[in-house]
Prior knowledge:
CATH superfamily of the domain at 64-165: Rhodanese-like domain
Radius of gyration: 27 Å
Number of helices: 5
Amino acid sequence: MIRDRIKNTAKKAALKFFGMEWDASERPVDHGKGVASTASFDPSLIPRVVDGSGDTPGPKHREDIGRTWLASQVISNVSPYLIDIRHPNECAGGLIQGARLLPGNQVKQRLDLLPEKEMRVTVYDQVGSDDASALAEWLREQGWHLARRLRGGYAEWIEHSEPITVPAPPDGARYMVGQQVERTGGGRFWVQEALPGAIYTLWSENGTFTTGVREDELRR
C-alpha cells in the first residue's frame, strides 16, 4: 500500500511537471486488462503517412523518389520512364524492370527518347550518387519537372529483392547488354542495347555510342 501511494505521488508530480494533467484527465479509466476497447477506438487519431518513412521519399519530394514508392509503381505497371546511367558491364546482372540503359550523360544527346515533359522520369545509378542527382536536376531544368533520382540506386533496389530484368540476347541474336564485343572495322565496345533482328547499340569507354550496328559486324 505504501508503494502504491509513492507511485501515485510520483505520477502526479510528473504530470504536473510536464504539463500533462489535461491528457491524463481525458483518458478513460481502464478497468480491464490494459487493452483499449475496440468500441472506443477512433482511427482518425492515427497520424497519416504522407511521404513514406525512413529512406523512402514519397511523390511530393522535389528531387528524389524512394525505393518502396518506385517498386509499388513498377509492380502496378504505372512506373515512370526509368533511365539507368550505369556502365554497361554493371548491367549484365540486371536492370530495374522497364529501365532503359543510357550510360553517363548520354540522355542529353538523346532527348528524343524521353516521354512528354509532364510524365515522370526516374534516373538511377549503382548507389544513388551525385551523378544521378545532377542528371535529374538537369532534366528538370529542361522541362521534365517530375524527373527524380532513385535514392539508394540499384544496390538498394536489389538488396530488397525488387523486380529486375536480366539481359538476354533477343531471339536469333548472339549478344546481350553488358557484353564486350569487337567491331570488324576495329575497336572494342560494350553492348548497350540489343534489339530484335540482331541490331545493336554499342557504347565505348570514351562515352560515344553507335546505333544500328548489325550482328555480322561484330565478334567476341
